[in-house]
Design brief:
Strand content: 5-15%
Order of helices and strands: EHEHEHHHEHHHHHHEHHEEHEEEHE
Helix content: 25-40%
CATH topology of the largest domain: EreA/ChaN-like  fold
Number of strands: 11
Shape: globular
Distance between the termini: 37 Å
Number of domains: 2
CATH class of the largest domain: Alpha Beta
CATH superfamily of the largest domain: EreA-like (biosynthetic domain)
Oligomer: single chain
Amino acid sequence: MATKHYNDPWIFTADEDKEKTYPLNNSNDLDPLLERIGDAHHVLLEEASYGTHEYYTWRTAISKRLIKEKGFNFIAVEGDWPDWYKLNRYIKGYDNHDKKPAELLQTTFKRWPTWMWASWEIAALITWLKDHNSTLPANEKVGFYGLDVYSLWESMEALIEYLVQTDIATAILAKKAMRCFEPFGEDGQQYAKAHYFMAESSCREPLIELLKEIRTKSPIYNHDPEAALNTQQNAHIAVNAEAYYRSMVGFNGHSWNLRDIHMVETLNRLLQFYGPEAKCIVWEHNTHIGDARYTDMQKAGMTNVGQLVREQHLEKDVVLVGFGSYEGTVVAGEEWGAPMEIMPVPKARKGSIEEILHHESAENKLLIFDRYNKKERFKNSMPHRAIGVVYNPENEKYGNYVPTVLNSRYDAFMYIDVSRSVHALHLQPDIHKTPETYPFNY
């Protein structure tokens, strides 16, 4: 039975087996979540698809409040470093002053799936961040970065372009490393097939030599506040991407783990850059944010960002926030590289978390968990939907659900009863030859 309180229209308190539940209509309804976050330095916000409007807008609402009210320093997303570094410099007022956010997103995010970041929802956030930063000194401007590992060629190109102007000797090392990859035409799968069983002939050694040299010389890359950070990060990406692509041929969880470990290492590098009291917001899919120990991923020997961040920091310093919806529409493709489509999201599977919450009340709501409360109703494993960039609604009964102990996988959960597709900028994408979420399509 729900007990009604002032400012908490239907917070559950009478039933010991229920999490605390609040209505979710506007940003003011985030007060209980902000209270739960408290003084935490790491807030990880997931999405249950890559193409849902409400997941982007609610994460934006949370991020704005964390930045304004709790002094969070940067947002880091499941995206490529070179692309987001360009956007980071834009919102800080360093580059592309004459560009509009939508225009910059269109020219930056050309590769499939473009709708992940080239959308009106992201353009609105970029506009807000740029305005927010416009009156702040350089050391207080909020940053925006990509955590992912895929941008081997883009990172190498950025390194060479920078080093040619600042450090010719190291630029020569970078060009030598780049030549090793030229026969594979920027195709990670071709490189992986050629070198998986021949590690001694891979391109790893010149990359490691380059990284060591850049680490040694990083103090001289000081003409720009973030030049050393950018240079070192691109070198780390090159080393880790090479290992990631070679591991993909193995068809196991090793490549997944390499990728998520890289993302956490990047996050830690950013936290170190911003100082000992730095606070971060992370946006990623639920398969990365939701603690892997409370899903079937653990049995497969897989870890993820949410688990690693929790393990590396005090419990009170990390808050994981999940998302889900009962039905609606989503942007996705029928196969890798297929045209983006607005697809129906069927009503959630019977017995799933989303179906249970819908039948409780067909309203948006915020759930706050206590995973040490053995009486909470979401303490057992239940199906929780996860939609990737590749999606077929007709296959819902066979897949798209991850067994989840909800009150342990997350600290809070935002339920959207009927969700809508993200508003993509409708680019004609470049189809990347290597599926970036291969082999899981999450």
